[in-house]
């Protein structure tokens, strides 16, 4: 036994077991997040139930969202109806009823004794709307212009889907017109206003310049009126048709087709149709914008903001970290000042992230950004341009936060390069700078990429500092668009990590937001893994390229 312990085999097995347990725990957590998040897009069957509550019998239509066993004593304390129940526990069901403008609760709990009957009838439609959430009921008719069509006789719902495709196409055209063409005109008008203001502050506003600005503004205004008329025509055309649907109250409700995103009949779908719908909903979640206080819709602005901010941070932190590591390892002497710098770098890695956020807000936003506004954007004051939180300040803050990781990783890579390589380069007549640029840095590039991978993994998941230096609940525009100078580093942005926090803790509809938290968390992990895999691929290529130099 003593020989076995002295051989080191127990510690090898213990390390392997610890790594295996950690790996299983991580994979299990990812599978849990994926299962809870991806099931959100699966079309659940819609139930029609006869329910008796407080002596009143009524019909409830909705999706079964969750089930749980609840102690009867707990329900007694809440004043629930316990008639006909025996035992210590009762099963209750969470039903998503939608129809929130006609029903008090978007979600409701029903105990098993309150459900008199339940079934999954054919013909129940789930109407996904742009506002007010889902609507459940039976499609009774379609109003096409001045003509009413009995949709109940349309077994394949072809007319409904045809009108829905037409309406969504017109709405997409209207949104594109408003966002790009009209948005570009508004942006140009604002630039003309700032140009005039700049001339006024410099006392250089001549009558000729004023006439030129007014002429350009008038032309833009005329273009705006033409586009506005076209926009109103699109909206009127999209509003032409209506959907008539009978809800759980037995009332006929008319829903304008321009408020309908999608209509599907989950009780009529087979497994392959449900799989196709699941894929369609998952893609729509990725490429669309959020709605209803972030409790519905997609997360594309958050994905774009996360990736854009991380890439900008990488562009900033990599040269700073590499230059600092080269100075410490190649130029600085082994003295007390160098040791103080190394201690400071190590201590920076242990500073809480929120402290970086406070520093970024005070130094980058208020001091540096305010100074930039005073020097270059006086015409915009008192409205700040760079003197308010934005994506550039968020990237700089996270660059400082992740700087120690890049420095330490790069310095370790530099230390692994044999001294003979440097001496051979110098002996052949190269200068020290040429040796660093052509020999040392390329050989250390895999270590630099390792530091960048670790920096990206940490920065992509940070939320606390971003809340102070640029992230918002809903950004009206992306940092990248078609207006000059195309990349707007001063704009605020959305972030997947903050989106998870906002949906999970600030949502007015907790039950609706819960699966979105899992779906967004899984998407954030996927984005981080994707960024890391891309960096790992680059690192492996570099390592293979310079492998012969290490031998």
Automatic annotation (TrEMBL):
Belongs to the binding-protein-dependent transport system permease family. CysTW subfamily. PANTHER family: PHOSPHATE TRANSPORT SYSTEM PERMEASE PROTEIN PSTA, PHOSPHATE TRANSPORT SYSTEM PERMEASE PROTEIN PSTA-RELATED. Residues 303-535 form the ABC transmembrane type-1 domain. Its main location: membrane. This is Phosphate transport system permease protein PstA. It holds the Pfam family BPD_transp_1. The chain crosses the membrane at residues 12-42, 299-328, 340-366, 386-408, 436-457, 516-536. The keyword Aminoacyl-tRNA synthetase does not apply. It is found in: Cell inner membrane; Cell membrane. SUPFAM superfamilies: MetI-like. It comes from the Bacteria. Keywords: Cell membrane, Membrane, Transmembrane, Transmembrane helix, Transport. It is a multi-pass membrane protein.
């Amino acid at each position: 036994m003593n020989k076995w312990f002295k051989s080191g085999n127990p510690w090898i097995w213990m390390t392997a077991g610890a790594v295996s347990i950690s790996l299983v725990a991580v994979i299990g957590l990812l599978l849990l997040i994926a299962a809870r998040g991806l099931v959100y897009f699966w079309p659940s069957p819609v139930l029609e139930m006869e329910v008796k509550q407080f002596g009143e019998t009524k019909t409830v239509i909705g999706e079964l969202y969750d089930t749980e066993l609840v102690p009867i004593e707990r329900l007694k304390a809440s004043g629930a109806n316990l008639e006909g129940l025996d035992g210590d526990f009762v099963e209750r069901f969470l039903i998503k009823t939608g129809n929130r403008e006609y029903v008090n609760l978007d979600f409701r709990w029903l105990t098993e004794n309150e459900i008199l009957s339940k079934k999954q009838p054919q013909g129940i439609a789930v109407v996904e709307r742009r506002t007010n959430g889902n609507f459940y009921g039976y499609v009774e008719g379609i109003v096409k212009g001045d003509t009413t069509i009995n949709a109940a006789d349309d077994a394949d719902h072809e007319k409904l889907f045809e009108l829905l495709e037409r309406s969504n196409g017109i709405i997409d055209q209207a949104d594109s017109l408003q966002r790009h063409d009209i948005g570009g005109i508004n942006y140009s008008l604002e630039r003309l206003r700032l140009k005039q203001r700049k001339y006024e502050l410099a006392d250089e506003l001549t009558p000729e310049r004023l006439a030129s600005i007014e002429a350009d503004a008038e032309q833009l205004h005329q273009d705006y009126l033409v586009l506005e008329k076209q926009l109103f025509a699109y909206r009127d055309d999209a509003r032409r048709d209506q959907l008539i649907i009978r809800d759980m109250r037995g009332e006929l409700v008319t829903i304008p087709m321009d408020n309908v995103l999608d209509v599907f009949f989950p009780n009529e779908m087979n497994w392959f149709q449900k799989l196709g719908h699941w894929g369609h909903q998952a893609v729509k979640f990725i490429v669309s914008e959020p709605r209803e206080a972030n409790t519905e819709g997609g997360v594309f602005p958050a994905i774009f903001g996360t990736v854009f901010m991380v890439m900008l941070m990488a562009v900033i932190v990599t040269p700073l970290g590499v230059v600092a590591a080269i100075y410490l390892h190649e130029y600085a002497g082994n003295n007390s000042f160098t040791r103080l710098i190394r201690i400071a770098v190590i201590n920076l890695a242990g500073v809480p992230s929120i402290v970086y956020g406070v520093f970024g807000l005070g130094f980058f936003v208020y001091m540096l950004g305010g100074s930039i506004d005073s020097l270059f954007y006086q015409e915009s004051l008192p409205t700040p341009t760079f003197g308010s939180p934005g994506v550039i300040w968020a990237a700089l803050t996270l660059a400082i936060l992740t700087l120690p990781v890049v420095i330490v990783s790069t310095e370790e890579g530099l230390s692994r390069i044999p001294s003979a390589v440097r001496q051979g380069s110098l002996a052949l007549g190269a200068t020290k700078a040429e040796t660093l640029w052509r020999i040392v840095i390329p050989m250390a590039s895999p270590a630099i990429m390792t530091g960048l991978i670790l920096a990206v993994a940490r920065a992509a998941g940070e939320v606390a500092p971003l809340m102070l230096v640029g992230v918002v609940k809903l950004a009206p525009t992306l940092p990248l668009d078609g207006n000059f100078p195309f990349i707007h580093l001063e704009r605020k942005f959305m972030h997947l990590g903050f989106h998870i926090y906002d949906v999970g803790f600030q949502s007015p509809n907790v039950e609706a937001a819960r699966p979105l938290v899992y779906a967004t968390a899984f998407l954030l992990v996927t984005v981080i893994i994707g960024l890391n895999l891309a960096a790992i691929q680059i690192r492996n290529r570099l390592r293979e390229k310079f492998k012969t130099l290490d031998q």
